[in-house]
Sequence to fold (631 residues):
Amino acid sequence: MVNVMIVEDDPMAQKLLEIFVSGNTDYHVAHTIESAAMAEFYCMTHSIDLILMDVCTAMNVSGLEAAEKIKARFPHIKIIIITSQPECSFIDRARSVGVESFWYKTASAEEILTVMDRTMAGESIYPDSTPSLKLGNILSENFTDRELDVLRLVVAGETDAAIAEKLFLSLRTVKQHIQSMRDKTGFRNRTELAVRARESGLVINNQTNE
Amino acid sequence: MLSYYDISMPLRCLVILCLFLLVCVGGYLVAPIFRQNKLCSKLLLSLSIIVCVIPMMIYVAEARAILRQLQIPSVSLWLCNQPLLIPVVIILFVTVYYGYLIREEQRFRSNTVTRSSIREGVDQITSGLCFYVEGGRLILSNSRMNELCHAIVGRDLQNAELFWQILSGGEVSPTVERISYGSYPNFRLENGKVWTFSREKLDGFIQLTAADTTLQQALTDELRDKNLDLAAMNLRLRKYGENVDELARSKERLETKVRIHGELGQALLAARRYLVDPKAQEPPLDIWRRNIAMLRKEMEAKKAEDPLLILKKAAASAGVELVIRGELPHDHEYRQFFLIAASEALTNAVVHGDAKTLFIELRGTDTHRTMQFTNDGVSPNQPITEGGGLSSLRHKAENNGFVMTVESTPQFVLTITGRRE
Fold:
C-alpha cells in the first residue's frame, strides 16, 4: 500500500483527488493538507511514499519550493506536481529540484492514476511542453526566457529599477525587454502587458516564496 | 598787469570759491592716491593742495579784514597786489591735474581687483556665498546670502556658524518651509524659490553656499509624484494578480463541476438502466457515492486560509500541542510569513528538540510586531548553526523586511520582528 499525501488548497480539487486516489486499492490517502508550508513537517512525522502537490497552495506557499526541501531531505519520497497554470517555468523548476513527475490537472481519474502508477514504478512523467497560449499577437513560445523573467517581475508589480536589480540587468536592458514584448504582443502599454500575461497564467510570481 | 585788487568783490569770491572747491577735491583724492604706490602722484597732490590752501587762506584773511574793517595783513596785501594770473594759473593747473587724477583713479578702479571690487563681484553672483572662520566670524558674504539669512532666520547674518546650525536643524521662520535637514538643508521660501545650502571647509576658512534649486526641486517633486503613482499602480497590479489567482481557481472549480455534472448524467443513466433491469448489472453505488461526496464538498467549499488552523492541524497530527499568546494580525502577507516561520519552528521543535509543546507569542507595538517561537523540547547543547530551513527562513525574513534572531541558550528561541505597515 502506497501512502499518499495530497497538498492542495482548493477543497473541491482536494476531494476529487481523494476520490481518485482512494478509488484505487494500491493507494491510501494518508493526509490531505492545504499548504505546502507544512508538507515537509508531515514527511518528517509520518510515513509518506508519494506526494501529489499543487504549485500554488494555501497562503501563497509554493509547492515547488516545498518539493525542493522534501527531495533534499527525503529523496525516496516521490512527488508529482499538479497544476492547472500554464506558467512556463514550472516544468523547468520541477525538473531542477528533482520532482519525479509533472501533471497538468484534468478531471480524469484514469490519467492521474496512470501517472501515479508509472511514477511509483520508477518512471519520470513530464508533459512534452507547456500549453501554448496566445498573448496579444503572438504565442507564448515566441517570448525569450529572459523576456519571461522580466515579465514575471512586471506582473508582480515591480518597478523597472527593481527588476534590473533582481535580474542583474541594466535598467536600459529591462526597458528594452519590456518594449520588445509590447512590440511583439501589440499591447499599448506595460500595464496592459502585465494584466494580460497574468490573466493568461503564462507567468506567475509568488512574492513570498521567492 | 591786472591784480587781485583790480577785480570786483564777486569775482574775488569766485576765486576763493574755486580754490576752496579744489582743496575739497584734493582732500577727496588723498585716500585713493595715497593707497597707490605712486610717490610722484602723492607729492604732486600734496603740493597742489598746498598751493590752493595758501592763497585761499590769504584771500580769505584779506576779505575778513575788509569786512570787519581791520588792518589787512601785509602778506595779504602783497599777494593781492600780485598779478591775477597767478591764482588763475594755479586754478587751471590744479583743475587739469585733478581731472587727470580722477580719470586715472577710475581707470585704476576698473582695472584693479580691490576689496570693493571683490565685494561687488560676489554681490553679482546669483547664488548665496559666505566665507567665515571657526566660531562664525564673517570674512565675506554677499548680499544674496544676507537676504537668505534674513528670510530664513529673520535677522541679519552676523554669525555664520550659528546660521549654519539653524540651517542644519534649528528653528526657521514660520514663513519658510523646510524641505530637508542634514548636510544639504533646503528650504522653500515665501516667494516659492527653493534654496539648497552646503558647507565646505577650505584652507583656514569655511565656505557656505546657497544655490537656487527651484527647478531641480520641481523636477524632484514631479518624479516623486510619478513614482507614487507607479507604486500605486504596481500595488494594484499585485492585488489584481491575487484576484486572478482566485479567478483561475474558480475556473478550475467550474471545470470540475462540469465534469461532475457529466458524471451525474452517467449516474442517472446507470440508475435508470439498473431500475429497468436490476438483474442485468450491479447497482451503480460507487458513482453515486463519488458524486454525492463532491456535491457535499461543494456546499462546504471554503478555502483554508487561516494559518493557525493549518498549523494546529499539522501539530495535532504529530501529537504536538500549540500554546498561542496574542493575536495574529489580519495582514495577509504577515499571515503568510507567519505560517512559513511557524512551520519551520514546528519542524525544529519536533525533529531536533523532540518537543511536545510549541509556544507561540504574538505581540506588537504601534510601530513593530513580533512573533516568537519556543518549545519544551531538549535545549540545544551547542550554538545553533543556521543551515537549510533556518537559513532559508532568514533569507525570506530579510527579503520581507523582518529581523530574525535565533537564540540557543538557555533554550531555542526564534524571534522575528518587523515594522508595522
User: Anything to note?
Assistant: The domain at 2-120 of chain A is CATH 3.40.50.2300 (Rossmann fold). Chain A has nine helices and nine strands. Chain A has two domains: 2-120, 134-209. Chain A touches chain B through 50 residues (CB under 8 Å).
